[in-house]
Amino acid sequence: MVFDLSDLTGEVLTLTPMQGLGIPVALCGAVFLALGAQFQHRGVGKVEAQLGGASSGLSLTQLRALVTRPSWIIGTAMLGLAVTLQLIALYLAPLIVVQPLGAVALVITALVNARVSKVKLDRLTVRSIALCVGGVAVFVTFAAFVARERPITDAQLITVLVVLAVVLAIAAVLFAFLRSRIRAIIYIIAAGVLYGFVATLAKVVINRIVSDNFDALTIVCIVALLAGTALGAYFVQTAYASGPPDLVIAGLTVIDPLVAVAIGIVVLGEADGAPLFAVIAFIVAGAIAIYGVFELAKHHPQARR
């Protein structure tokens, strides 16, 4: 069984049952992402209370202390499982279908953190969550009908790697010269951008391994993927030291999917041939989800305090 939109677009755009399986897998990954973020945030908070704040970046002493905290270790294990499920989802389905589902982690994080912190979510917070979920649901629904896999050419892959190299260079320079002045939101934005590229490269590496196309360019992708993951993880841990996990996940679940989806559409051509109404739906649904996330960050009781 496949979805057939040939009468709308003049060609068949499909999401097979196997690709559709990527959606629930990605949702399970979002659950573990949310829980892992909560545990890691608790571990960072305990280290910060013991050794002092980390607004200018975690020190080596603080990083060593983190690996001895049971809560941080549990959170890291959950995040590892979340990454594994996300990789499986990327193998099963197009990037622009599964990557936006990470926004569900924001909702779960908000609810779990509210319960753990004994903070009641008010009407504005609940409305923000509804906007986020609704926008993502509409986005993924349309993506499920119009997205499709395409062979990734070397030229496309080199384009992604060059842009990532520029992003890594900018992040390194900013961190080296402005470390003491960087605020938490900058760490969150930087991590979100890096993770967007990481998701794209993970998709590329998986496709190349499956198609027996493991070459020097694939190795470069793996190195870039590991570098982006490591730097992004460091930025996330530093951001945890500056606020509740809701806000960190809020930034990541907006910026990460935006970057990944933009690459998937512009560079990889995963939405080529989509009808105009689908493109409009992408823009409107994405705007609603983004608005909901930032409203959540604005109106969450802990954010207001």
Question: How would you characterize the largest beta sheet?
Answer: none
Q: Globular, elongated, flat, extended or rod-shaped: what is the shape?
A: globular
Write down the Rg.
19 Å
Helical stretch tally:
14
Termini, distance in Å? 51 Å
Q: Could you say which structural class the secondary elements and strand pairing correspond to?
A: mainly alpha
Mean pLDDT: 78
Helix content: over 70%
Number of strands: 0
Query: What is the domain total for the residues?
Result: 1
In N-to-C order, the SSE pattern is HHHHHHHHHHHHHH
Low-confidence stretches: 1-13
How much of the polypeptide forms β-strand, as a percent range?
Answer: under 5%
